[in-house]
From TrEMBL:
GO terms for molecular function: oxidoreductase activity, acting on the CH-OH group of donors, NAD or NADP as acceptor. Gene3D superfamilies: NAD(P)-binding Rossmann-like Domain (3.40.50.720). The keyword Oxidoreductase applies. This is Sex determination protein tasselseed 2.
Length: 301
């Protein structure tokens, strides 16, 4: 098969140079300092984009920006704070000649992953507020300020948010997280209806489990009931290679598609497609990247 470097007739496939799909475009990626966001930033840069990383992690964001070169910069931005989001957009516009083509709402938090957080009987209003502020309000503010920058230029634009399979099905995450991801899918549809008049497309991507610091820290917590009071999102540490491999094995076991391992790059490829002109007639869509899981009845035993 062609993915082994051979075409269907057994002849070697000659690699052709990869076309740059975001050449000259300007993109903002929230939560771009690590995990899925980092993979999006790297792929966007590979495809010729100038990228602004908007994140609360100054150290990781600055380090990634300087490693990737002058076409990448970092701006500190808490997506749940409107002034920060407005400032990140201003920063991109002032640095790149008033241009903004792509806005990627990727920043997110999972919230507490304990048994209590997963039961409606012990639903916690404070936790709900905290998670919704980052994931749902953050995405809405991103859509607002991206659209305010894109619409007057009359050059279209693409807003891509990272939702989750927990934005499609129940039973996959704590209540606050599930509600926040369903909210992103809804916001995407609403904003697409309105912004289509300006040629701005609005879509989202819904990943299944990717072995990022977020997921691995949650998995650790899920195996430790004593961690019930830990503030998970503020205490995320870099996972070891061994933990990444173990997590990937768990996800491979759940996916209905057997063979490939789901990597941050796979999510980034879907985001790239929706960000680029190749998807120019697609708007209001939720592109699920899950190895078939949400279409299967055997999700979790
Ligand atoms: P991660 O925790 O590894 O990375 C998240 C990044 O967002 C970090 O750089 C963090 O500093 C930043 N961030 C957190 N809060 C922020 C805020 N208020 N403002 C700005 N930046 C903030 O997580 P990840 O797994 O890479 O997740 C990225 C996105 O993908 C999230 O929206 C997440 O919900 C979604 N997602 C992840 C998975 C998965 O399995 N990892 C599955 C489905 C969806």
């Amino acid at each position: 098969p062609s993915h082994h470097g051979w075409d269907g007739n057994g002849a070697a496939v000659v690699p052709t140079p990869m076309p740059k799909r975001l050449d000259g475009k300007v993109a903002i990626v929230t939560g771009g300092a690590r995990g899925i966001g980092e993979a999006i930033v790297r792929l966007f840069v590979k495809h010729g984009a100038r990228v602004v990383i908007a994140d609360i992690d100054d150290a990781a964001g600055e380090a990634l920006a300087s490693a990737l070169g002058p076409q990448v910069s970092f701006v500190r931005c808490d997506v749940s704070v409107e002034e920060d989001v407005a400032r990140a957009v201003e920063w991109a516009l002032s640095r790149h000649g008033g241009r903004l083509d792509v806005y990627c709402n990727n920043a997110g938090v999972l919230g507490r992953q304990t048994r209590a957080a997963k039961s409606i009987l012990s639903f916690d209003a404070g936790e709900f507020d905290r998670v919704l502020r980052v994931n749902a309000l953050g995405a809405a503010l991103g859509m607002k300020h991206a659209a305010l920058a894109m619409a007057p230029r009359r050059a279209g634009g693409s807003i891509v948010s990272v939702a989750s399979v927990a934005g499609v099905l129940g039973g996959l995450g704590p209540h606050a997280y599930t509600a926040s991801k369903h909210a992103i899918v809804g916001l995407t549809k609403n904003a697409a209806c309105e912004l289509g008049a300006h040629g701005i497309r609005v879509n989202c991507v819904s990943p299944f489990g990717v072995a990022t610091p977020m997921l691995i820290n949650a998995w650790r917590q899920g195996h430790d009931d004593g961690a019930a009071d830990a503030d998970l999102d503020l205490d995320i540490t870099v996972p070891s290679d061994e933990e990444v491999e173990k997590m990937e094995e768990v996800v491979r076991g759940l996916a209905t598609l057997k063979g490939p391992t789901l990597r941050p790059r796979d999510i980034a490829e879907a985001v790239l497609f929706l960000a680029s002109d190749e998807s120019r007639y697609i708007s209001g869509h939720n592109l699920v990247v899950d190895g078939g899981v949400t279409t299967s009845r055997n999700l979790i035993g």
